[in-house]
Amino acid sequence: MDVVQIFRDGxxxxxxxxxxxxxxxxxxxxxxxxxxxxxxxxxEIVNRILNTASANWRSxxxxxxxxxxxxxxxxxxxxxxxxxxxxxLFRLALEASAEDELSSMRQGEKVLEAVIALAPLLGLLGTxxxxxxxxxxxxxxxxxxxxxxxxxxxxxxxxxxxAAGLIVAISSLIFYRLFQGFVVNQVKVFRRxxxxxxxxxxxxxxxxxxxxxxxxxxxxxxxxxxxxxxxISQPTRLQQPTSFQSDFGDGSDRAQDLGTSPNEPITxxxxxxxxx
Length: 276
Hints:
- By secondary structure, this protein is mainly α.
- The chain has one domain.
- It is 79% helix and 0% strand.
- The chain has 10 helices and no strands.
């Protein structure tokens, strides 16, 4: 069977069908390569990150960062890169990341949908054009003669475009449904892994909250007590600078110590000897 001759017999509708088939084939090959890389590495990435997160969140963050070339790695890294978020923010980060990743997984579906819808219509259009051309060359007087023998051949050739359109549409529909099944499976994987990671983080957050509350309660009580003690024991006036009078007292105290009146001059033995 000569494919080139069949293509020529199909009429002008075969050219747009050829373009649609090439477009559909390119999308199918790209999506197959995409899903093969995901399905062969996804379970290992999830297990490693979850097992590491149960022991060390920093190491789990590093593992998720190294797996950002995979959708599941980007999905788990989105909340892990946040600095100690509360559980509600952690869950919102998971949901936002899941929506982005699932949207990227649906790339190419619109192209396949267009091919599935257009290919049969183009094939039918080619058949109709072929029938118009074949029946337009028939004359009433030629019916039942050898001249009408070519009409049957023309009708058969015109049906080639319909068959080609159906083949392109059916092939695209098979892979379209296959890719949709992969996306549905990914929704389950994302939901399960996200729930496990969120559960681990809630336990981790409860431990952090309990530790922080313990640290905040005891030091605060000590600080308040210390401040009260400082307030009570605080002197009422500042200490005066050191001076001669502060060290030795004033003249009245000195005179009382020597047994003299405050107004009498203080004489020392050395002064008495000099006066004598």
